[in-house]
Amino acid sequence: GRTDPEAEAPRLCRAEALAIDKELLEEFRFGQQQLIEIWGHACAMAVTKVFPRRSLPRKQPTLLVVCGCEQNGAVGLACARHLRIFEYEPTIFYPKRSSNPLFRDFTTQCEKMDIPFLSYLPAEVSKLISDAYNLVIDALLGVEATPGELPEPFGTILATLKQIRIPLVSLDVPSGWDVETGTSDGISPDVLVSLAAPKQCATRFVGKHHLLAGRFLPYDMQKKFELNFPEYPGTDDVVSL
């Protein structure tokens, strides 16, 4: 019979995940913006697969994208832009904007597409957020986040995300989780989209859908890091694990 792709997919520790990024940038000459764009598009594709527009409970296909100030947040911005192109209605919450000019471009692109930015996250979360949006995308903290005490405003935002009752989609690493050990204290997303390859913490993921966005990785690299991926269907750039 068919082997279980979840069992086959390798799990990266933090050092391996950072090494893959470094190699893509230095050896294979990918640009950082290029990688963010590829991942943002793939994450948007993953959302459309799990939540087709017509299946959403609300009349307007609204969703909230919560972005941090590092690379994962920029992936969230690119993801929001692609979802807008796919005729969803994203709103972005980006409380601590990055000073990195590479990331600033993604903000400008979203602004030019008239994607609204929230100035604050409502405290009456369960009511206001659940009433306004079909789902929330967590692009707050990625592999680069160090576990432990979170600087504000991230601690407060995380506390808000924990109370959300509508579906939650996390990009790469659910915010508040340790990349390697996972966590019992962080949020519990319904959907996880792993970038490049699943991280070790994904073994603790108990949500309904785990998708992988790593089809673009060069073959030599897949071999070197022993990334024994399941087959991607057709020309899709995401696969369900």
TrEMBL record:
Per the record, a Pfam family? YjeF_N
Name the source's superkingdom.
Eukaryota
Its cellular-component GO annotations read: mitochondrion
Q: Which residues form the YjeF N-terminal domain?
A: 17-229
Give the molecular function GO annotations: NAD(P)HX epimerase activity
Q: Under which name does UniProt file this protein?
A: ApoA-I-binding protein 2
Q: Which organism is it from?
A: Podarcis muralis
